[in-house]
Design a protein that fits this description.
Blueprint (H helix, E strand, L loop, with lengths): L7 H25 L3 H26 L5 H16 L4 H15 L9 H14 L2 H8 L2 H10 L4 H10 L3 H33 L3
Helix pairs in contact: 1-2, 1-3, 2-5, 2-8, 2-9, 3-4, 4-5, 5-9, 6-7
Length: 199
C-alpha cells in the first residue's frame, strides 16, 4: 500500500522494471524495423500493449508517487544518449502528466486511474514520431541520414505521419492497445502475482 515513503526496495524495483520496459521497447523496435509499415504504424502500439502489461507490475509492486516519472525520465535519457536530445524533455513531460492523473493519495491502488495513466502514456509516446515533423525536422533528417537510413524511409515516414487517415489510425490503435495492455496486466497481477504472494 502507498504510504508515501520510498524504501530502497522501491527504488530498485522501479529501476529494474523501468529497464525491462525500455529493453522491451528496443527489442520491438528492432524486430519491426525491417518493414516501414510495421515500424511506423504498428510498433509504438505494440510497445504500448506489451509495456502496459509490465507497467501494471510497476504500479502494483511499487505504487509510489514518482515511479512513473522515473521510468519516463529513464526512457528520455536513452533517447538523449541515442542522439535524439529533444525527446528527453518530452518524456519528462509525459511522466509529469501521468503523475498528475495519479496525484491523489491512493491513486496507484486505483486500477482505473492507473489504466488511464498508462493509456495516456502510450498515446503521448507517439510524440516520438510527430515531434520531429512539427518542430525538429532538420535535426531528425540529419540524424536519419547520418544513421544510414535511406531516403525512401524518410519519405514513408512523412507519408504515414502527415496523412490524416494514417494519423487517426495510428493514434486510435495506440490508445486502444495501451488500454488493453494495462487491462491485461491488471488481470495478470490479480490472477497470478497476488495469489502467489509476490505482491
Amino acid at each position: 500500500m502507498d504510504n508515501g515513503k520510498w524504501a530502497i526496495k522501491d527504488v530498485i524495483s522501479t529501476l529494474l522494471i523501468g529497464m525491462l520496459m525500455i529493453v522491451i521497447q528496443i527489442v520491438i523496435n528492432l524486430v519491426c524495423m525491417p518493414n516501414d509499415f510495421v515500424s511506423m504504424v504498428l510498433s509504438t502500439a505494440f510497445t504500448a500493449f506489451v509495456c502496459g502489461v509490465v507497467y501494471m507490475l510497476l504500479a502494483t509492486r511499487v505504487g509510489k508517487h514518482g515511479c512513473t516519472l522515473i521510468y519516463t525520465t529513464m526512457l528520455g535519457i536513452v533517447y538523449l544518449i541515442s542522439g535524439n536530445w529533444y525527446l528527453t524533455p518530452w518524456f519528462i513531460l509525459v511522466g509529469v502528466i501521468c503523475e498528475l492523473i495519479l496525484i491523489k493519495k491512493g491513486s496507484y491502488q486505483n486500477t482505473k486511474k492507473v489504466i488511464a495513466s498508462w493509456s495516456v502514456n502510450g498515446l503521448l509516446h507517439q510524440g516520438t514520431n510527430f515531434l520531429p515533423i512539427l518542430f525538429f525536422w532538420d535535426t531528425y533528417y540529419t540524424f536519419a541520414m547520418q544513421s544510414g537510413m535511406e531516403q525512401s524511409y524518410v519519405d514513408a515516414y512523412l507519408y504515414y505521419y502527415t496523412t490524416p487517415f494514417w494519423i487517426a489510425f495510428i493514434v486510435i490503435l495506440t490508445l486502444v492497445l495501451a488500454f488493453l495492455g494495462a487491462l491485461v496486466g491488471t488481470r495478470l497481477m490479480d490472477k497470478h502475482f497476488r495469489k502467489a504472494g509476490v505482491l
